[in-house]
Amino acid sequence: MLRSLSISSSGASPACGPPRTGSTTECFSYDCWAYPAPDFTKHGAGSVAILVNSRVCFGFALLGSALGGLTALVLGGDGVTIYHGLYGFNAVLTGIALGGLFLVLNVWSMMYALIGVMFSAIVFAAIAVALSPLGMPALTAPFVLTTWVFLLPTTSFRALQRVSIAQCASTNTLVRLASES
To answer: Domain 40-180: what homologous superfamily?
Structure first.
C-alpha cells in the first residue's frame, strides 16, 4: 500500500485558502484543498498542442493519465493526490516518451509503454515519500528515471525497436518505421 503524501510542515495550511506563512514547504503541500481542479486554460491548451503535434502522443498522454491514476487507486494512493493529477503527470510524460517518441510503434512497444506508465506512478509514490521529510516535491524525477530504466534494455528485445534521435522529429516517422518493419 502506498503511504499518504502529506508533506506540509507543522503549521499546515487550512482546508481552504492559501498557505499561512508562504514557506516553500507549505507552497508544495499536496494536501491543500485551496486549489481547484485543473481547468482548460492550464491543461487543455497543452492537450490541444499535443494533439495537433501527434495523435499517437495524445493517445498515450490520455492512457498515461488514466492508467497512472488507476494504478494509484488500486495500490491505495492518497485520493487528494490522485485527484490533483500528481500520479498522472509523470505517467503522461512516460507514456509519450515510451509510446510515442523513442520506440517504433507496434503492439509490443505499446504494452511496454503502458507497463512503464504504471511503473512511473509507483516510482512517483516512492520518490514523493522519500523526499517528504525534506519538504521537496518529486517533480519529474519519476518520469526521467522510469524512461531511462525502460529504454536501457530495449536493445536486447527484438520486438522493441529504438528510434534514433534524428528520427524523433515526428510521429509520422514512427508510423512509417512501423510499416517498414
So the answer is: Ammonium transporter AmtB like domains (1.10.3430.10)
Assign 9 to helix, strand or coil: coil
Residues 8 and 137: their CA atoms lie apart, in Å, by: 11
Spatial separation of the C-alpha atoms in residues 61 and 103, rounded to whole Å: 15
| Domain definitions of the chain by residue range | 40-180
Rounded Cα–Cα distance for residues 181 and 178 (Å): 5
Q: Which of 40, 35, 33, 39 is nearest to 14 (CA)?
A: 33
| Residue 100 · residue 49 · CB < 8 Å | no
Count the alpha carbons within 13 Å of 157 in the hemisphere toward its beta carbon. Answer: 14
**pTM of the full structure:** 0.71
Three cell numbers at 21? 506563512
Full pLDDT tens readout for the chain, 181 residues? 444 444 444 444 333 333 444 444 443 433 333 334 455 556 678 888 888 888 999 999 999 999 999 999 999 998 899 988 899 999 999 999 999 889 989 999 999 999 999 999 999 999 999 999 999 999 999 999 999 999 999 888 989 988 877 666 565 666 676 677 6
